[in-house]
Amino acid sequence: MISTAHRELPPSDGQLVRVIRGGTVTAVRQLYQRHYPAVHTYALHCGATPIDAYELTSRAFTQLLQTLLSGELIPERRHPGSVRRQLQDLVRRTAVSWAGARPASLSQPFLEWLARGGRWPFQDDGHLSFAFALLPATPQNLLWHLLVEQDAVADVARITGLPRAEIPPGLDRAKAQLRRARISLRADRLGLTQCRIALRAVHGEPDGRSDADVMRHLRECAGCHSVLDDLDHLETRVQRTLPPRLLGWWPGHGYGQLKARINPPVSDPPFLVQAVEATRAGQSGSRSARRRDHTKPLPPGRHRRITRSGIALSRLLSRAVAATRPSGSGATARGATRLRPGGAPITAGSYDEAQGPVLPAERSEARILSSSTVLRFDGVDFSGSRDASARARLRATTGDLAVLELRLDSPRAEPCARFGASNGPVCEVVTRIPVITGVHQVFVTVLCLTEKPCVEFHWFATT
Length: 463
Ligand SMILES: [Zn+2]
Fold this sequence. Notes:
Layout (H helix, E strand, L loop, with lengths): L1 H4 L7 H9 L6 H19 L3 H21 L3 H4 L5 H15 L10 H8 L10 H9 L2 H12 L4 H8 L6 H24 L2 H10 L8 H10 L1 H11 L1 H14 L6 H6 L10 H24 L11 H20 L21 E2 L5 E3 L2 E3 L6 E3 L4 E8 L7 E8 L5 E7 L8 E5 L5 E6 L6 E9 L7 E8 L1
Antiparallel strand pairs: 1-11, 2-5, 3-4, 4-11, 5-10, 6-9, 6-11, 7-8, 7-10
The structure holds zinc ion (ZN).
Zinc ion (ZN) binds next to helix 12 and helix 14.
């Protein structure tokens, strides 16, 4: 029914942000579903491997959540009103911060951009980004999501909170606003009264001059001519120059093609599961803290009710992010590890115990695993090697990326090794691991973005 259409609209990004600021952490799930393909695609272009990209993506969402819960206004200072660009901005910042300690985690094009000074293209078409910045959030989002990201109308409706039918006319209005803002900036720069009058007349702001005068000036004035020429190609300019101007690093053509192949996740990521648990714990703690605080004034800068629990949750979330980091990425990842006997691979089929589904594969030693599978291998001896890397032979069996993790002595321990699996032929993946000595049980688990089995696992070994 038309009369109920407005009521059935899902919450916009802006509404979700307000709800999260109010302490409802679970609302980040909708933002995650909505923006994961784009943010993860951006991260795939910054990171060296799918697992690096997964970490960059998780960190970006976690940092956004932390900032919203802590009551800070920082996300609104950059990319106001755009959750997508805020997340991509966070991905780029984290990737830049890895340049010193973890260059091997960054893609070659990203490293090359950093080697050139990580410069933003300020020389190109500055007026367009200034004009864009002058627009309110909704026209900005329409231009960005429809022209740059080329998102589906249904997705843009969810992001902006506008009914679908209002998206195409909204885009036309946004383009007109951008044109007017740009003309205004360029006309001011040209400085000449005749130019300002003529350019504004073209966009429906007549200033008493006759049309013939205006047309003559536009024909004869090179400055005005170049402005109008730019405006003829506005869409192309938005697509080509806005992303690098606003985000600094932008992968270009490959972005859209790759994004089309990335599906939204079907289950909650580890950071969200931990955030929800942390909020539950934090809320009960902060309620009692607030009750106590009624007897004394709040310290300066702590007037928001959410701030106190937000800080506690931020700490817990920091730990959650740390847990997503592949082990062995620090300076301690050197030393002696080897699996007995002599680093020979331990085949998937030789496990001592399995929980959850374990399906046979074409090769007899391989097994196909899902997110609920745990394989236990007993008596794995890690002593005797000088190397500190682990290998696994595997592939993802669905179109999505998947992660295989090794844990020592408990299926709930932090992983000591993580391997990214991508769809395609079976391949050998190498990852660094921390120094491990002695004999351990090894638990193998996988992280799928679907409920279905997602990893064909052949063997693991140290080198
Ligand atoms: Zn002129």
